[in-house]
Prior knowledge:
Oligomer: heterodimer
Structural class of chain B: alpha+beta
Radius of gyration of chain A: 26 Å
Mean pLDDT of chain A: 90
Bound molecules: zinc ion
Mean pLDDT of chain B: 84
Largest sheet of chain A: 8 strands, mixed
Number of strands of chain A: 32
Helix content of chain B: 40-55%
Low-confidence stretches of chain B: none
Number of strands of chain B: 11
Strand content of chain A: 15-25%
Strand order of the largest sheet of chain A: 2-32-23-1-22-7-8-21
Structural class of chain A: alpha+beta
Shape of chain A: globular
Largest interface: A-B, 26 and 23 residues
Shape of chain B: elongated
Distance between the termini of chain B: 36 Å
Amino acid sequence: MRMGRRTCWIAGLAIFGLGLLVLGPSSGPASAAGGKKVLVLGFDGMDPNLSKRLMEEGKLPNFKRLADGGGFSKLGTSIPPQSPVAWSNFITGQNPGGHGIFDFVARTPENYLPFLSTSVTDKKGTRLLRRGTAFWEILEDHGIWNSVLRVPSNYPPVDMKGPSLSGMGTPDILGTYGTFSFYTTEPQVGGDVEGGKIIEVKMRNNMIESSLVGPRIGEGGDAVKVEAPFTVWVDPEEAVAKIRVGDEEFVLAQGEWSDWKPVEFKVMSKGMEILLSLVGQTSSLHSIARFYLKEAHPEFNLYVSPLNFDPFYSPPGTSICTPDGYSKKLAKEIGYFYTQGMAEDTWALNEGRLNEKEFLQQSEFVLQERIRMFRCELEHFLQKEQALYFCYFSTTDPLSHMFGRFMDPGHPLNYPDEFEKYGDVIPHYYTRMDSVLGYALDRVGEGTTVMVLSDHGFTSYRRSFHLNTWLYENGYIQLRDKRKKSSGEFFVNVDWRKTRAYALGINCLYLNLKGREGYGIVKPGYEADQLLAELVEKLEAITDPKTGEQAILRVYRSSEVYSGDAIESAPDLVVGYNAGYRASWETALGKIPNPEKGFFGDNLKKWSGDHCMAAEIIPGVLFTNKPLRIPDPSLVDLAPTILNEFGIEKTPEMIGRNVFAEGPETGSRVESVMR
Amino acid sequence: MFAFNNALARMFDLFYTPFRSFHPVWGLLAMSAVTGLILLFIWKYTTNQKQMKAVKDRIKMHFIEIRLYQDDMGIIWKTQARILKQNLRYIVLVLVPALVIIVPVVFILVDMDHRFGREALEPGESALVKVKFAGRGGLPEVTIRAPEGVVVETPRLRIPVEREVDWRIRAEREGDFDLAFVVDGDTYTKRLTVGNSTRRFSFIKGQATVEEAFFNPGEDPLPKGSLIESIEITYPEMRFRFESWVGHWLTLFCVFSLAVGFGLKPVFNVE
Ligand SMILES: [Zn+2]
């Protein structure tokens, strides 16, 4: 059928008119809130007690400005108070029973093997394991522009039109949470360390040849490790070296960091690569790294950061941003940036490959990049009529982990001379966060709802508890080779046919349940219930022989604290440690150290502050520029609150309340923490 | 040779003047378009247009033959051999103009590389400076002197096997600076360009030879026989980005000049 000229005109006008109706600023569902804007800043691990003290000392003027003019409260955290879990509470407005993230590791019940809990990579690519709807997905459904930068537990990021960048949980190109490399001429005995590869190199004619090690490419027996060779020339006398990697060549004096250098891992021949580049394609793996010349003479020591995804390229089989190409757009504006999740190299400091000063320099790079990123996207937010902008800052968390011992004179790893030097590090970074906030407040002006939150607080981590050893000594775990009286990682020596309960992750305890675990022996129902009651009672009664303190403040039954569809994969008990206590690193990975050394050990690692304790003692913070109207707000309340700011009802799955609306009086603090 | 090159450089400078304050890609595209046009005209007047048309027609005819006799392998083989022969003839016809074309194109390309190959330093940016020594034996003592506005950031890095000494320098403000290198009482200089407008600058400076004049124009060469063989500043490579495409200026040049050349062939009636 052919349309007449006039019909054409009328149809055109009608479509134009409809378009105006749909897109016009004064109509449609998007306008229900009348141009509302919400800015949310996430400061990981910011502690309410320290914040309060520093505000009183006048060191956090901008936080004080918010607290005085709006609201400031402790913010109930998740059970357990681990970042991936807590931020998932924030994202979904549900507790772990709903979003399915219970600890940083989870296990496959069939074979008891642990895996990192927030994402999985298989033949189909990489998928986010967090369940539930992120509140910004709901905003997008209502046509509200939003940008969510670096929020944890969002890798790969949920598919959005708005700019987003994945955060904690994003791997380096090796697929790990960040593996540094350390090249040294010093003879090594130990080999690789936690979080790092140690590579022994030889110097000939003041020259060193080695390679950066990439991931394995291909499958099964055909898999090959790709490498990027590099050469170092060291001056015969001066403490200076030149490094050449790929097309990059740069000189570093001892004690200097390079800026980001692209490191390309070639998968195909050079010719193919050139042909592909003509059509804007690549088969290479593109990463970026920073080099630090720790020592040139007499020994040569070079630290290379974890190989991060190059933001200018889309990583194969996965994604770190939405929409496609956003990371590139951002990198064009602010330069290269860390794309891996937790970018502060805590392991390098823990393992003595970077010292405090070097670690602080490295953390400063991360913060500077984040500030640039935050300001860049803030400009876009400011131009919108109606929008949500969330930006996450990690700094306060790793710094509080690594420098916690300088806030606690009773910490076993605390030297008075260093106390002088580093005692102010954590407060300093709180003031830095304060200036980030100050900048934001000045830029957004009135009319924008501003919320600042942390996922949990902090306390000292003085003593480690070997929970699996305790389970073994009390007969809940049986070993196959009884002479050993211990087991390596992942329960290698555990006799599952005789084991009734096991601990994995930092806070989780599972029954070896019949019908659920591969070799389960505990019958669900009465037997399981009795066992749980027995464990709770015994665990809460444990005291540390060294201090006489109660080590475990509270053990939560998942059936009592969790609700939602994901509850079937929950641990049976969540262990809430007392302040100063935490599960040992060994426990987290299913290791059983020999019981002769006791269940407890002094924490002599630099990782000396922590938050994986009982939720009640480790709340986060909430600052708002509007008065808080409910007592004891909690992380799960924020998604409903943000939706409410835009006039959108929370979903039935969300268990929280709007913190700006007066509601029925809630119960005790403990209860509100548990929601 | 140096005089000729300098004159040529002036000419090119004149051409690029209107594009100085824009993104380098505009100057690049303009020159590519002009090159495309020049190529087209050289092509038109150096090739035997009549013969070329004849050869091309014959090739076309043979293709028709193949289609007609596609079941007869004998004819197809013969025809293919003929196509090959005509193709060779075509190449011979093209060879002369191609040689003629190469000369101006090389001058244009060398000049373009000094404008679009690398980016001048931005204030605050660092670069590697490499001094290579002539001859053999031990490395001579060399010191670097930076004018105000340039900071030498590292001690010297000596690589005796490469006869090379390197430093990292940082530019503090816009401008042209002369870095001085003192060897054995003699002073040698190298120009450092800082600031982001599109202009021609030299990356490496060598001794006064013909190749040097040709490939590294733009700065007076080091005297012949001096202790220093070359002084290089590793300016960052210029990258052109369009959406997901990232590439070198040469790729853009090839695509655009050929597109203009081919696109305008019918307009100027060129075979
Ligand atoms: Zn933490």
